[in-house]
Write a structure and sequence with these properties.
Elements: H1 3-7, E1 17-20, H2 36-49, E2 53-57, H3 63-74, E3 80-86, H4 89-97, E4 102-108, H5 111-118, H6 122-138, E5 142-148, H7 155-167, E6 172-177, H8 184-195, E7 202-206, H9 213-222, E8 227-230, H10 244-254, H11 266-277, E9 294-295, H12 298-306, E10 324-325, H13 333-342, H14 349-364, H15 371-382, E11 390-400, E12 403-413, E13 416-423, H16 427-439, E14 445-454, E15 463-471, E16 476-483, H17 486-504
Parallel strand pairs: 1-2, 1-8, 2-3, 3-4, 4-5, 5-6, 6-7, 7-8, 9-10
Antiparallel strand pairs: 11-12, 12-13, 14-15, 15-16
Helix pairs in contact: 2-3, 2-11, 6-7, 8-9, 9-10, 12-13, 14-15, 16-17
The chain binds 3-methyl-2-oxobutanoic acid and zinc ion.
């Protein structure tokens, strides 16, 4: 919004390169380890997605990392293949041995890193950095230099080190916000300032410790950064890195930047990486979460059904997602009607009102009604006996350890109220026995078949009970019910079948 006015104060580049680090920083997500074979499969998908560079790992750290880098290089992908290396000879040689196209070399530059981690002087760090870039360029490889913890490094020193590595032939300098301490305004300021000194493209690598990784990366782009580091699903050390899917979609739709990413593959790769890493996405995750294009509230559903843009900033197809209308306590009649129409289910107003009431009741109990639930509820309502000769007035069951399951059922049979209490092998059996004893005075009707199914998973799933009942004269009928309580579903299904037989008689 207001982009043309706001853009006047920005130095937006023509395009933004995507440096994907899912296989390196993403693999540093606590608890995540990706095998060589899995790295290859993810790299192929990243290449298809269209990222410019894939950081495939840290070759010096293990033989497996070297193998992964070598195997991925052999695939001949369109994306450049990058290996991470400290500014140390051994690390650089390990990456060079893998034949990578690109080396991302780094060293800590902040006072904390210099004093406590490296125990090195500013001069020695500068010297190592220049030598590392020199060495990479001597081997004809693309060089990216990262001043680790750049955002907590003295600005004068940061400028100096970046200027020196630029002089040594670096192709990119990268600004890591290693512990995610930046805010968008500071990132914008820092990149603007660096742009006055550095001519080669500037890249940023933002961590999400305060949930600002994407916002900070976008601010860097506003100030002219030409490349962003990102990971699928925002994986990475601690709270993770900038999420690739969020960054890309914001750059394209909010900033109008042209990129080579096939956005329609975003959901597919997000699900793939989630399955491989075991890191599940929260349903409300932007762009790729299960709810990113789901609508429940009546007003929203009504709007979306008229014109999707009313409540969607982009189409779900753009990112390979699908729109979902969720039925719950906020759902309006229009949404339920549209779902039933979608499944070709026709019903009269009375039947529809029964479904509507049931959806609302379930919603009030905190349950969402799935498509399978709705279809089963509709089948129940459509198949109901046309007249209720026997009506349920109330029932209770008692069961437990050392207690004979007992059910007390109160029925209205053709205007007369009767109650019976019976035992059974379980509460369902006891309830059916009580119903049969009450109805036996009117007609001898027996249970012939009984099936129960939980429609969707979970202990609060809707139970669908299906019964077949018959009498001595050969009349038989099916009964069905779909409610959350198993005993209630059984009682309703049995009464449904009994009513059908009584109507026949
Ligand atoms: O977060 C960081 O600083 C890194 C470096 C290796 C660039 O991941
Ligand atoms: Zn990092």
């Amino acid at each position: 919004m207001y982009i043309e006015e706001v853009k006047k104060g920005m130095e937006l580049p023509e395009t933004v390169r995507i440096f994907d680090t899912t296989l390196r920083d993403g693999e540093q997500t606590p608890g995540v380890a990706i095998t060589v074979d899995e790295k290859i499969r993810i790299a192929k998908r990243l290449d298809r997605l269209g990222v410019d560079t894939i950081e495939v790992g840290f070759p010096a750290s293990s033989p497996g990392e070297m193998k992964a880098a070598r195997e991925i290089i052999k695939l001949g992908l369109k994306s450049q293949v990058c290996g991470l290396a400290r500014t140390l000879q051994g690390d650089l040689d390990a990456a060079i041995d893998c034949d990578v196209d690109y080396i991302h070399t780094f060293i800590g530059t902040s006072p904390l890193h210099r004093e406590y981690k490296l125990k090195m002087s500013k001069e020695d760090i500068l010297d190592l950095s220049v030598k590392a870039v020199d060495y990479i360029k001597d081997h004809g490889i693309t060089a990216e230099f990262s001043a680790e913890d750049a955002t907590r490094t003295e600005f004068e020193y940061l400028k100096e080190i970046y200027k020196e590595v630029e002089g040594a032939g670096a192709d990119y300098i990268n600004v890591p916000d290693t512990v995610g301490v930046m805010i968008p305004a500071s990132m914008r300021y820092l990149i603007f300032e660096l742009k006055n000194y550095i001519k080669i493209p500037i890249s940023v690598h933002c961590h999400d410790d305060f949930g600002l990784a994407v916002a900070n990366s976008l601010s860097a782009v506003e100030a002219g950064a030409e490349q962003v580091h990102a990971t699928i699903n925002g994986l990475g050390e601690r709270a993770g890195n900038a999420s690739l899917e969020e960054l890309v979609m914001a750059l394209i739709t909010s900033y109008g930047i042209n990129m080579n990413i096939k956005t329609e593959l975003l959901v597919d790769i997000s699900e793939f990486v989630s399955r491989i890493t075991g890191v599940k996405m929260p349903p409300n995750k932007a762009i790729v979460g299960e709810n990113a294009f789901a609508h429940e509230a009546g007003i929203h559903v009504h709007g979306v059904l008229q014109k999707a843009e009313t409540y969607e900033p982009i189409t779900p197809e753009m990112v390979g997602h699908t729109r979902k209308i969720v039925l719950g306590k906020h759902t309006g009649a229009k949404a339920i009607k549209s779902k039933l129409d979608e499944y070709g289910i026709e019903m009269n107003d009375t039947q529809f009102n029964q479904i509507f009431d049931q959806v609302k009741k379930l919603g009030d109990k905190g349950k969402c009604v799935t498509d399978a639930d709705l279809k089963a509820m509709a089948e129940t309502v459509l198949g109901r006996a046309e007249r209720e000769i026997v009506k349920l007035e109330g029932f209770s069951v008692m069961t437990g350890d050392n207690v004979m399951p007992t059910a007390t059922v109160k029925l209205n049979i053709d205007g007369k109220i009767n109650t019976a209490a019976k035992t059974g092998v379980g509460p369902v059996d006891a309830a059916i026995n009580a119903i049969q004893s009450l109805v036996s005075e009117t007609a001898d009707i027996e249970l012939k078949e009984y099936h129960i199914e939980a429609i969707t998973g979970g202990t609060n799933a809707l139970a669908e009970v299906f019964v077949v009942m018959g009498d001595k004269d050969g009349n038989s009928a099916t009964g069905r019910s779909t409610v959350e309580d198993v005993v209630m579903a059984s009682v309703e299904a049995v009464l449904d079948a009994i009513n059908k037989i009584l109507v026949m008689r």
